[in-house]
């Protein structure tokens, strides 16, 4: 009797019918499928060495700063960063090692966790492993793979890099242009530390510089 009552109750339980539009659902799913490979691209690009070219400017001899002084300051900076100079005819090449960043590894792990969690939500809707939606879906175990993004970065981030520089004085001697070829991260750190401005752009001082000037 109890078995018959259970069967009857199960038959009376209304089945779940989605209230959303099927067209909207598949359109959203298609957009998600197209965008998900960007997660792998984010992880892969974190260890790619892609040099870019920038031109920075600083004060020249006409403003009291000799070109030789600028060159000495640049050399001292790269030596402090464990880069070895290799002078040539018209350019200077600095060779060093691109270090690994714990913060970058954690950032990639976090982004991968969010990406896999969103994938698990999509799979839970499209291909549920458990009929009862209130129960835990094993698809969420995919998020356990997120640390491998940080491991992938950590194992490949350390590599030899080069920064090429060419120093040129303007005709009137008021400015000195520094043409630089290197990774985006290295050039940004170089520009920020040396206090150079990118040619054709107005340099906005950082918060540290602003607070330092206020204290003085």
SS summary, helix count: 8
Please indicate the percent range of residues in DSSP E strands (runs of 2 or more).
Answer: 15-25%
| Uncertain residue ranges | 5-13
The secondary-structure element order is HHHEHEEHHEEHEH
**Percent helix range:** 40-55%
What's the arrangement of strands in the largest beta sheet? 2-3-4-5-1-6
What is the residue-averaged pLDDT? 79
Structural class: alpha+beta
What summary fits the major beta sheet? 6 strands, antiparallel
Outline, from the CA principal axes? Answer: elongated
Brief rundown of the structure:
This protein has 216 residues and is α+β, with helices and mostly antiparallel strands. The chain is 48% helix and 19% strand.
Please, could you describe this protein's structure?
The protein has 216 residues and is α+β, with helices and mostly antiparallel strands. It has 8 helices and 6 strands. It has helices at residues 2-12, 22-35, 37-45, 67-80, 102-126, 147-156, 184-194, 207-215, and strands at 52-59, 84-87, 92-98, 159-169, 175-182, 197-198. The protein has a 6-stranded antiparallel beta sheet with strand order 2-3-4-5-1-6, with helices on one face. The termini are far apart.
């Amino acid at each position: 009797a109890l078995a018959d009552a259970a069967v009857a109750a199960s038959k009376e339980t209304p089945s779940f019918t989605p209230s959303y539009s099927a067209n909207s659902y598949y359109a959203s799913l298609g957009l998600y499928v197209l965008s998900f490979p960007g997660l792998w691209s984010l992880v892969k690009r974190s260890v790619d060495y892609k040099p870019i070219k920038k031109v920075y400017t600083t004060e020249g001899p006409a403003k009291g700063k000799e070109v030789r002084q600028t060159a000495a300051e640049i050399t001292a900076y790269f030596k402090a960063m464990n880069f070895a100079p290799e002078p040539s005819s018209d350019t200077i090449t600095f060779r060093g090692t691109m270090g690994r960043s714990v913060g970058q590894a954690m950032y990639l792990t976090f982004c991968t966790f969010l990406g896999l969690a969103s994938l698990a939500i999509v799979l839970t809707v499209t291909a549920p492993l458990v009929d009862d939606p209130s129960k835990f879906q094993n698809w969420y175990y995919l998020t356990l793979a997120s640390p491998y993004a940080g491991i992938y970065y950590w194992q490949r981030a350390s590599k030899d890099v080069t920064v090429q520089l060419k120093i040129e004085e303007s005709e009137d001697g008021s400015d000195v242009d520094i043409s630089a070829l290197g990774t985006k991260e290295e050039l940004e750190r170089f520009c920020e530390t040396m206090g150079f401005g990118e040619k054709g752009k107005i340099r906005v001082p950082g918060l540290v510089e602003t607070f330092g000037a206020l204290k003085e």
